[in-house]
Design goal:
This protein is an alpha+beta fold and about 700 residues long. The protein has 18 helices and 22 strands. Strand 21 and strand 22 form a beta hairpin.
Length: about 700
């Protein structure tokens, strides 16, 4: 009891000394937090993030400045997550050094970026160059006002120089190790204890002369980053131990005298019977026969002990039977797995393997038990070559990964150390699973994502180029029209014809660019619909009148038939005109001389169905898949009998999809084609806006209009 009191005093004194070390480390982190806040809430820094002025760098970001405030790294990041300026110096030599790459990656993935004006990040970051104190603060004005312009990040290496300064300040012997690298056994043991009791100082005797206090420092995500140990002499304990040794000698002498007298009494009354019980237990243990029982006699304590031993033997027998049943159940369960499961001893010999592993090794369990893995040529790759079980036994840490076997298969393996009650590793449970098919599926998904990104990039490029081309084209068309109208003077007949060709070609090219721009907006999810209510029959007549000159040249009659129940619809009026214009223009273009084109509008529930039917040349079955695809035309490019860009139907489909409708068609060679679409009669503006449409998700056919 007295020794435990001395141990408690020693622990309390050690805790107090370790707290001084903790306070010194916390003071260093607090200094970094304070200095980054002072720099981040400064009008000059706020202005530097906006304009990147060189004067700020020349005056305030010199090597001597960082060395003066004892900061190794300064990183300025704007509110978009882009690095504006970075600087790294050695505070001792005042020389510029490379910025740690891991810090730059943590900026890219947003780990070091603050989320708001009141957000801040503080803690340890483990870098390849060494552990570092990190402090991140939003960039505000000197009055601590926003909006935040980004994040200012300061870092100070927790190096040997800083550790020596803590030793001098606290007058302690300090040692420090990173949790992500190999540590001495005592540090590893304390790290496991910290997982159960975080943020607690652990005191452990190192030897008869020294006692140590351990505490952990966590990283910015709250995970253990560093384990620090402070060593102190065991003066209190050693003094108490010397005092108690004298007491032990006195008690030992007294106990010997008492024991000699008691021994004679015990030998006569109890020892002989105890020897009999001991012999019985030894015999049962050696023969492993749980059916034997002690003979009961007398009615004293030894009688009750014998009775309890018999009862214990009964319970052990029942527990053994239950354990065997559980082992059988576990074996059946593990044998049912498709994974290869092998339990290996520290000598890398097989203790047990499931059915799948035995099949893979082409061996029975009786022959497999005791086999040394690496010395057996018949056991191949997944179980031997890649897991590196020696490292698992050495570090005591679980290991997992993937590898490709010699036959091209991809495997996922896990090696899990199994320890006894004392923490000693008694074996490793190794599992291997064939993931070849799942990896192929992941590769296909990755390739699909790359294709989608490329498609969006193409759409954005076309949209940007279309904007750039429209400005000079408008100028060309305008000046050619002025020349055609003879605003700048008279032209001869040949010049007028040439200027007219320029104007028509420019307008045709402008229409093509406008179509490309519209299609790119849809594919980029940036085309917005402007819903308005308008009269349907009148709008159809307007479109007919727009195209009547083209129809009259081919003597084509255009008829319109609108359901009496349809008066007005709610949709994007300009886009609706664009849809009907493209469909009617195609119908007239591909109709025979003196042909007939019919436009019909019907009500189907909450939808309006509009069809455009012609009796023209029709579309071949092999060409029907080309429809509704950008830049794809049924008319061969070599002959180019019918003018067009191949964008009209693609835009029709995308605009109809944006309205919440669908498009379909039917066609026969020599009998003509019918194109139809449906959209809601009463479109809602909340359903419009930036809607991303994937044309691959809707294929229009005559047989199934719902696709």
């Amino acid at each position: 009891m007295q020794l435990s009191n001395f141990l408690e005093l020693e622990q309390a004194d050690t805790l107090q000394n370790v707290e001084r070390v903790q306070n010194a480390v916390s003071a260093r982190q607090g200094y970094i937090d304070y200095i980054v806040q002072d720099w981040a809430c400064w009008d000059d820094t706020y202005q530097f993030i906006e304009d990147g002025n060189q004067q700020y760098i020349d005056v305030d970001l010199q090597n001597e400045t960082l060395a003066g405030i004892r900061v190794n790294v300064m990183l300025f990041v704007n509110d978009s997550g882009d690095l504006v300026y970075a600087k790294s110096v050695d505070v001792n030599s005042v020389e510029e050094t490379p910025v740690p790459q891991r810090l730059l990656k943590m900026i890219e993935d947003g780990t070091l970026l603050t989320k708001g004006e009141d957000d801040s990040i503080s803690g340890i970051v483990l870098l390849d160059e060494g552990p570092m104190f990190i402090a991140c603060h939003p960039i505000l004005t000197t009055k601590y006002e926003g909006p935040s312009k980004g994040t200012l990040i300061f870092g100070r290496f927790f190096d040997n120089y800083l550790l020596e300064s803590f030793k001098d300040t606290t007058r302690s012997s300090l040692s420090m190790y990173r949790t992500d690298r190999e540590m001495p056994p005592d540090f590893q043991e304390e790290l496991k204890k910290f997982s159960e009791t975080p943020d607690k100082i652990l005191v452990e005797p190192l030897s008869e002369e020294k006692v140590a206090g351990y505490f952990e420092l966590r990283d910015i995500s709250g995970q253990p980053a560093l384990i620090v140990r402070a060593d102190f002499p065991r003066e209190l304990y050693l003094h108490g131990e010397r005092t108690l040794n004298y007491m032990y000698l006195f008690l030992l002498f007294t106990g010997l005298l008492t024991g000699i007298g008691v021994k004679f009494a015990l030998d006569r009354l109890f020892i002989s019977r105890l020897v009999e019980i001991d012999d019985f237990v030894t015999k049962v243990r050696s023969e492993k026969d749980l059916s034997k029982r002690l003979s009961l006699k007398d009615s004293d304590e030894l009688y009750r002990l014998s009775r309890e031993i018999n009862g214990m033997l009964n319970e052990i027998y029942l527990a053994e039977q239950e354990l065997k049943a559980q082992e059988r159940e576990k074996k059946v369960l593990l044998d049912s797995l498709n994974e290869l499961v092998v339990f290996v001893s520290p000598e890398l010999r097989i203790i047990w393997a499931n059915k799948a592993a035995l099949k893979h090794m082409q061996i029975s369990l009786e022959k497999a038990v005791g086999i040394f893995l690496k010395a057996t040529p018949d056991i191949s790759g997944p179980l031997v070559e890649y897991p590196q079980l020696e490292q698992v036994f050495l570090t005591g840490e679980k290991k997992s990964g993937e590898f490709t076997s010699k036959d091209g298969g991809i495997w996922f393996f896990q090696a899990i150390p199994v320890a006894d009650e004392n923490g000693k590793i008694i074996g490793v449970m190794e599992t291997c699973r064939d993931i070849t098919e799942s990896k192929k599926a992941e590769q296909l998904l990755h390739e699909k994502q790359i294709a989608e990104v490329a498609n969006r990039t193409k759409s954005e490029f076309l949209a940007n180029m279309s904007h750039e081309l429209r400005t000079p084209l408008n100028s060309i068309i305008g000046f050619s029209d002025l020349l055609y109208e003879k605003v700048y003077g008279e032209l001869n007949e040949k010049q007028i014809k040439a200027v007219g060709n320029i104007s028509r070609s420019g307008k045709h090219l402008l229409n093509l660019i406008n179509d490309i721009l519209d299609l790119s907006k849809v594919e980029a999810g940036k085309l917005e619909l402007d819903y308005k209510e308008f009269e349907l029959a009148g709008k159809l007549s307007t479109i007919k009148n727009l195209l009547s000159p083209i129809a009259d040249r081919k003597k084509i009659e255009v008829k319109i038939n609108v359901d009496k129940n349809l008066t007005t619809i709610r949709a994007d009026e300009a886009r609706f005109v664009q849809i009907l214009y493209n469909l009617l223009d195609n119908a007239i273009k591909f109709s025979q001389e003196s042909g007939l084109v019919k436009i019909e509008a019907k009500k189907k529930g909450d939808l309006v169905e509009i069809t455009v039917k012609d009796n023209g040349i029709g579309i071949k079955a092999e060409d029907q898949r080309k429809l509704f695809k950008p830049f794809s035309q049924v008319d061969p490019f070599s002959s180019k009998k019918f003018q067009g860009t191949g964008l009209g139907l693609a835009l029709v489909k995308q605009i109809v999809n944006l309205h919440g409708g669908y498009v379909w068609f039917s066609s026969k060679i020599g009998e003509g084609s019918t194109f139809a679409f449906t959209i809601p009669i009463s479109g809602d503006e909340r359903d419009s806006g930036n809607i991303e449409v994937n044309p691959l998700n809707s294929t229009e056919t005559a047989e199934d209009p719902e696709l």
